Write a sequence for this structure.
């Protein structure tokens, strides 16, 4: 396997990407992000994230109010997560065969309907657990169809992909801070049904923004453009506003596309290497950290302290997004892995029984490191992978990243009962140092050069009118 490149890539891919990268720097050497269409996509993502962070509060308050217990709340949430994790890979294939914009609009409209139905059920007092779980499952299916298209939409809307990802990360982090608070106010002053109604409204706004969106054409000869050769051998038709050139696949079976996506995923050592290490991260770090931090902080210091620590974590992710807007490392995954070392302070400070200010500080630093890594990773995937397979590879990325999280969460309780929650969190803190060290130990990961490296060189990498190709 090659380091970061696919053995299946078409011969014209490198030249096509150079042409694309060469347009990311304007005459003044400044990178442009904001445009009408990116602003619409930005609002769609921020509003949808706001609604998604309101949902756990609505489910918990609504089900408990109607006589159900914590197990029912977990089951309702799990129905969505299971459908999403199990079907997102197939969603990636669908996104590579049809218009991603239309698929995302359709997914938003489906969730507008399901959440409006949930609002009606909770408002009327007719709450049956299996119905709520069925609604959650449909939401998960819609999310699996929606998510793969996000990865391929960002590069088509913003010339500066890293800055675009940083801006979206900041918006999503701010929404994550505001969502639970807004949901709590709605529950307190109205009812859980009103939160579901507000959640449905966020999908309506997202769908409207995407409907108004105009996706630009990709230049002829670029990867994924009409007529361009690519893995799988099928060209793309389209090019009208809102329909991407890598959309409307006309050849190849669904199974062949699925296998082809897996082949492309495996051909990139840096890609599957990160996902393999991330499985360890989910089992040993993130999985146990989320439930055990909540338990320990609430038991030792009360729910207000937990809210403060969570707010500090969210504020840190905003800071990390701003850092990702400013810093442009040549080796993005190396820089992101170094930033991940900062996460160790979060579980370690709670496991060591430090005070609330120290835990909040550890959470803030951890959030910044995780957010910076997230932007570096998303940008690497979106710029290193050809557009005609990006949706499928992003789907494998999401599925692989989420696969081991339930395992880590399930093992957290038994491990805490055997070792003590504090000791498990200290182990998680130690593993937070092992994971980035493992990432840095893989040459294909630490040495991957950003796709637009030549554009960041002095004078935009131009030598006598020629663009110096980026090392891959």
């Amino acid at each position: 396997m090659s380091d970061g490149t696919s053995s299946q890539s078409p011969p014209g891919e490198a030249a096509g990407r150079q042409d694309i990268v060469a347009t990311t720097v304007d005459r003044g050497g400044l990178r442009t992000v904001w445009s009408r269409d990116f602003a619409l996509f930005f609002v769609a993502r921020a509003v949808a994230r706001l609604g998604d962070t309101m949902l756990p509060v609505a489910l918990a308050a609504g089900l408990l109010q109607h006589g159900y217990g914590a197990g029912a709340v977990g089951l309702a949430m799990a129905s969505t997560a299971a459908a999403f994790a199990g079907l997102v890979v197939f969603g990636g294939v669908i996104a590579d065969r049809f218009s991603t914009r239309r698929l995302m609009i359709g997914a938003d409209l489906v969730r507008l309907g399901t959440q409006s139905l949930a609002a009606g059920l909770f408002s009327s007092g007719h709450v049956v657990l299996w119905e709520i779980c069925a609604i959650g499952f449909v939401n998960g299916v819609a999310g699996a169809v929606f998510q793969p298209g996000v990865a391929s939409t960002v590069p088509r809307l913003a010339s500066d992909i890293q800055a675009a990802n940083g801006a979206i990360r900041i918006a999503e982090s701010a929404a994550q801070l505001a969502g639970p608070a807004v949901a709590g106010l709605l529950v307190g002053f109205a009812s859980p049904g009103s939160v579901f109604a507000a959640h449905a409204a966020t999908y309506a706004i997202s769908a409207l923004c995407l409907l108004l969106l105009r996706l630009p054409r990709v230049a002829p000869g670029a990867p994924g453009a009409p007529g361009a050769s690519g893995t799988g051998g099928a060209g793309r038709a389209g090019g009208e506003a809102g329909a991407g050139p890598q959309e409307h696949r006309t050849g190849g079976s669904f199974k062949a596309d699925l296998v082809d996506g897996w082949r492309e995923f495996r051909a990139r050592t840096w890609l599957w290497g990160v996902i393999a290490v991330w499985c360890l991260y989910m089992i040993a770090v993130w999985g146990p950290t989320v439930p055990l931090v909540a338990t320990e902080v609430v038991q030792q210091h009360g729910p207000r302290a937990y809210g403060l620590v969570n707010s500090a974590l969210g504020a840190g992710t905003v800071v990390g997004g701003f850092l990702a807007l400013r810093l442009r490392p040549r080796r993005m995954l190396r820089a992101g892995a170094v930033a991940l070392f900062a996460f160790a302070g979060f579980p370690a400070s709670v496991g060591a029984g430090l005070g609330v200010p120290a835990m909040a500080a550890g959470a803030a630093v951890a959030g910044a490191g995780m957010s910076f890594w997230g932007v570096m990773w998303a940008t690497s995937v979106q710029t290193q992978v050809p557009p005609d397979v990006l949706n499928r590879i992003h789907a494998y990325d999401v599925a692989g990243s989420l696969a081991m999280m339930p395992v880590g969460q399930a093992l957290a309780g038994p491990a805490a009962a055997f070792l003590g929650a504090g000791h498990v969190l200290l182990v998680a803190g130690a593993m937070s140092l092992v994971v980035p060290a493992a990432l840095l130990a893989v040459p294909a990961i630490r040495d991957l050069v950003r796709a637009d490296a030549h554009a960041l060189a002095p004078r935009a990498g131009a030598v006598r009118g020629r663009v110096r190709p980026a090392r891959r």
